[in-house]
Amino acid sequence: MLNKYKKIKLNSGATLYYRKNDINTATKVRVEFKCGAQHDGSKPGLAHLCEHMLFAGTSKHSKEEIAKIGTNFGYSNAFTSSLLIGFVGDMVTKQLPMYIDYVAELLSDSLFDKKMLEEEKQIVFQEIKGCTDDHQFLAFNFNEYALTELPVYFNTVLGSEKSLETITSNDLKKFAKKYFVANNCKVYICSPVGLNKVKNILNKQLIAKLSTNPSLKLDGKFYTKIKNVKFLKNRFEDINKCYTTVNIVFDKPWTDFSFYNKLSLLMYAINMDGYGLNKLLRLDNNLVYYAVGECVYTERNGVLKIRTESNKNNVNQILRALADWVKTFAQNGIDQATIDLIHSRQHFDHAMQIISPNNYVNKLLSWEKSDRLISGKLQYKERMTMPLDELNAMINEVFSRAKYSCTVYGDIKKEELISEKEFNKLFNSNN
């Protein structure tokens, strides 16, 4: 059985959230420090640039060698958010000690070389340039909803060129010395390796290489919510492109594990090549450059988000096509041939039955308190044996009883779009 996460204290004030994985041989790791953009002080972009520089060379390995080591794992990456700097990795279990050594070296031995710093700044400048645009454009929200938080990223985490130009190697060293410390370290591991062995690896290979900072204070106010328009303006990339998102909001809290486990079959169908969105919008009609369906969960609701990237002239066609598809899909559901095809691909998804610390780190307490947690094996069996009529009844429930909202953003005039009244007639006629 896949156990719940356990909270364990490591040496020097570090914390481990551990979960035993006995489903397969995969290990998932997340190492995080509370030192995101909110800790930049007077130099916005400092935390993000520091994260970049951790991979720019140590006393043992060059930037190129570090990059090569990272490719040895199934997945390895790092991120900076408004609140955190984190390292995430998926690997075969025998690589766990190697991965911990890799992260420990980056945290404790990065050189913050001045020459490499200037090169890394240019990379961040390109990131900023790719996320901003001088063109005027509008964002329109039909039935705007506010169910999920949007990260403050492009306008805070990346910083500005003016700010980044002032950051020195000494600034980075001081930042790293202050925040990359044991008493600011949390590690999340889901692995077949036993708890005592995991503790031993972490204490000896990671925590022992980090100093402590008893005077570290992590309090302070920071705004982690912003309006859609402000966020989307910073995402705008191409004056000829338009981004359209249809939000299908339904009354299912994220703790309804059984429902969302079954809903994953629907997500497979929506995104399957030759079926779903790609067949509707891209393969058949060439309406979009990109289309994807995804699901996000909140405390009280679920949201199916259908996101497209297209030429600005195609938006109305996309909305009408999606409205027709939603109604047909709600009525007809999925056929047996589609289910059989999805099942044939499920072996790729078996490993994902592990509740990954990368995906659920902010919900750990809720998982620990919940008496509805189902093991990964049981979820897998339940989904594979779900009757077709039961699945289609669920599809009808989601699409027919949902509330629909939409956001369109790009260099497009309001009078060129369908009206909000027409949108509601297209999508909310069953409500």
3D structure, described in words:
This protein is of the alpha+beta class and 431 residues long. The chain starts with 5 loop residues before the first strand and ends with a helix. The chain has 17 helices and 11 strands. The radius of gyration is 24 Å and the shape is globular. About 15% of the residues have low confidence. The longest helix has 18 residues. The strands form 2 sheets. The chain has a 6-stranded mixed β-sheet, with helices on one face. The protein has a 5-stranded antiparallel β-sheet with strand order 6-11-8-10-9, with helices on both faces. Helix 1 crosses helix 6, helix 9 crosses helix 15 and helix 11 packs across helix 16. It folds into 2 domains: 190 residues, Cytochrome Bc1 Complex, Chain A, domain 1 (2-Layer Sandwich); 190 residues, Metalloenzyme, LuxS/M16 peptidase-like (Cytochrome Bc1 Complex, Chain A, domain 1, 2-Layer Sandwich).
Key words describing this protein structure:
431 residues; Cytochrome Bc1 Complex, Chain A, domain 1; 2 domains; 5-stranded antiparallel β-sheet; 17 helices
Elements, N to C (H/E): EEEHHEEHHEHHEHHEHHEEHHHHHHEH
Radius of gyration computed on alpha carbons:
24 Å
Gross geometry: globular
Major pleated sheet? 6 strands, mixed
CATH topology of the largest domain: Cytochrome Bc1 Complex, Chain A, domain 1
What is the CATH H-level superfamily of the largest domain? Metalloenzyme, LuxS/M16 peptidase-like
Query: What's the total number of strands?
Result: 11
Helix content: 40-55%
* Portion in strands: 15-25%
Secondary structure tally, helices? 17
Q: What's the CATH class label of the largest domain?
A: Alpha Beta
Q: Which regions have little confidence, pLDDT < 50, spanning 5+ residues?
A: 132-137, 145-154, 220-237, 347-377
Integer tally of domains: 2
- The termini sit apart by 42 Å
